[in-house]
Amino acid sequence: MANTAPDELVARYLAHVRFEKGLAPRTCDLYQLDLMCLAEMATADQVPLLQVQNGHVRRWVAQMHRAGRSGRGIALILSGWRGFYTWLGREGHVSYNPVADVKAPRSAKPLPKALGVDEAVQLAQHEEDQDDPWLEARDAAMVELLYGCGLRIAELTGLDVVPSSEASRDGRGWIDLPNGEVQVQGKGSKRRTVPLGRAAVEALTHWLSVRTQLPGMLSQPTSGASDLALALFPGRHGTRLTPRGVAQRLKRRSLLAGLATPVHPHMLRHSFASHVLQSSGDLRAVQELLGHANISTTQVYTRLDFQHLAKAYDAAHPRAKRK
Q1: Same structural domain for residues 85 and 13?
Q2: Is there a contact between 196 and 180 (Cβ–Cβ < 8 Å)?
Q3: Which of 172, 211, 240, 269 is catalytic?
Q4: Is there a single domain that holds both residue 122 and residue 252?
Q5: What is the three-class DSSP state of 16?
Q6: How far is CA 131 from CA 97, 123, 220, 260, in A?
Q7: Annotated catalytic residue 103
Q8: Global confidence as pTM
């Protein structure tokens, strides 16, 4: 086995993952590309594949990173290499795995996509005259809750018109218009109270007056009522509106409102957090409003806030622009 050619070992390994492990053809093709990359780097450094050391792998990782390959891409390549050397060890060709403790460089977390203030207001103020009045009232209320309260899409679709034993049991929330609040249950079964702004109260009040005109809808359903009767936002087909349905309606509404980028529900949550932080600078308050368990999750919005400040500086300060 010691005299087995490297190309033959690679071919045997690829046959192993394809036929013995039963991996998908596309996955096997990616493994083959990873091993071609490994062979090219080893050849460039005049290192036989069976004599690759930990230091070689670390140097190749640095080379790939300098060449612009992402941390995630490098991690996938390392995974392919690691599997190959694990197999070589089992077959008795190497005494240790040179990739075992090598990690890819960390990739910078992408900033959440948020609308500018003007764009968010443009969407919130949009009125769609071509829709049925009940659809327009419902969609306007949903936008106000997503942008005005920063709700997650599952929290939005899980809202009822009144509290009930069913809502408490099933982890749903409800609106409390007299107190100007919305009660939601977020991740980890954590309940929180989010204040409703004036625009949200007005939109919900109008929607509730229209909602009662729909079949099966009651303004004050009692405990034991059907899920549809309790649902704050019903769909067209006599069921509670789904997250997919909300996403489709929001995308359509944003395009009709003239926004350049189609808007998805979580983008409005990001916009809510970013705009509140820009105005208040109170990171803890934003954490509570969003229902984040750890403030480190909320801190990503400070990067958006700095981005906003940097743009303002570049646009306004006489010494910001280079000649």
Answers
A1: yes
A2: yes
A3: 269
A4: yes
A5: helix
A6: 63, 16, 26, 21
A7: no
A8: 0.62
